[in-house]
Write a structure and sequence with these properties.
The chain is mainly β.
Amino acid sequence: GDLDRAVAVSREAIHLIDIRLGTLISTIRPNFSFFGGTKAGEESAEGEDYLGVDINPATQMALVVGEGGFVLIDLTTFLSRDYPLSNDPRMKAVAVDRFRNTFLGAYWKSLSPLVLERGVLEVQLPNPVPEITSLTPSETARGDDGRTITVEGKGFIEASEGYFSDRSLATTLLDNCHLELFIPKELFSQGGLFPLRVFNPGPQGGQSNSKDFAVKNPRPLITALNPATVPAGTQNLLVEVYGSGFIAETLLTVKGQAKAYTLLNGTRLEVGLAPSDLETTGDLAVAAMNPEPGGGTSNTMSLSISNPLPLLSAINPQALKAGGPEFKLTLTGSNFTSASTVFFGQTPLPVIYLDSGRLEAVIPAAALANAGTYPVTVGNPAPGGGLSGPQNFSVTPVSNVAPLPVGSYGKPYEDLFPLDAAIPSYDPKRFSLITGLAREGNGNPLSGVTVSLLGHPEYGTAVTDAGGRFSLPLDGGATFTVVYQKAGFLTAHRQVEAGWNTIANSETPVMIGEDAASTAIAFDGQAATKYTHTSSTVS
């Protein structure tokens, strides 16, 4: 065998010899007679030799048989064990079933001078401890449909059983050095290194060393993103990632940062992106990585972040007097980004980004130098982007009325001085306001109504705003008639008593539209001709 050792049997003993060195290793003397009453070298009365020797190279065990029994010898440790036979049987031949690791001996036994019993004796030998040297193949892909592998080693017997981790496998003995094991599909559902072992049952026997079988993870591949382009500032975005090789252990990164995701199957997963991921334009690199064994990093695919087209819905304030100081303009709308620019007329201004629906811009005093109407717009840069529709800001002319003294009652209301007021100045002690509301016949506020004081053109005029309201400064201390005028409506009047340093409220008029009904009258010189005109019904 592999040990280059020989077994020689004499009448008195068994000798173990090193073939390469030609030296005696050990002498073993069994506790029973090998030859019974026969001398060494002689034949028995039946003319047969009762000595037998069989060596199993797979287990490195030698079996020596004589008339009185047999001896089992371990050729690696030189330990032996005697097996004397009872009832005086005589062995005629010996063999070892290497698959089952059993001793087979043919014997005869004299029951009487005329009766001879012949038979075969089978004895279970001590099973070896198996040893694994290699696996073929030693790896497979995760998700494999099941695979038969060959285990090479020694000490394998018919009762050997293979194990994949702690799972028993269907095992087929090819010879004492080779087994076939079938690993079913369900054991390939997870990637990793799994220990494979072989176990031999008793007597003796035991568990082999382990060899790792690798179930390799796939390398992921990304083929598409949906959507592939999104506007900056998008809220609650869910991106679908398509490809292959996605597993539960896949690490998904967006711009180098790991992201939580939902695995739908091996070719599709979903990842949610926060608004902070989409604040600025550019490309977000999306990649996937699977762990070892196998695995690896996928290709990179970019999610393009483009600027949306901004929408400007309102500005506050909408108007200021010419010559005023710088101020902060609040813009309301949607699709604003941190890269948005505010234009006052054609002048770009620094922006304070609050959120996607609100911006602030500082309007310098120089922008209020001249009266006029200035379009305010918001622009987003490329990629994408564009210019919003305008909201008009009015810079109104400065009134010619002298300012009131600091600390006076009317000082906070100087911005209400009418531009057409002809009074040189208001009396600080008597300064007051008349305020009120104008409505249409249907009850809705009416804007664009010119309000003046009958007989006092020096106080100028006020115009109702979008809410139908007005405020008109004057010197109080008298009763005034308030005149409401608008083209297409009948003029209305209300009387108001205005005191000093106070705000007087005018009764709300309901403006009645002018009647479009008319009757043509022709003078025909006939006294009997009569005409009747009927107006439209006013409710």
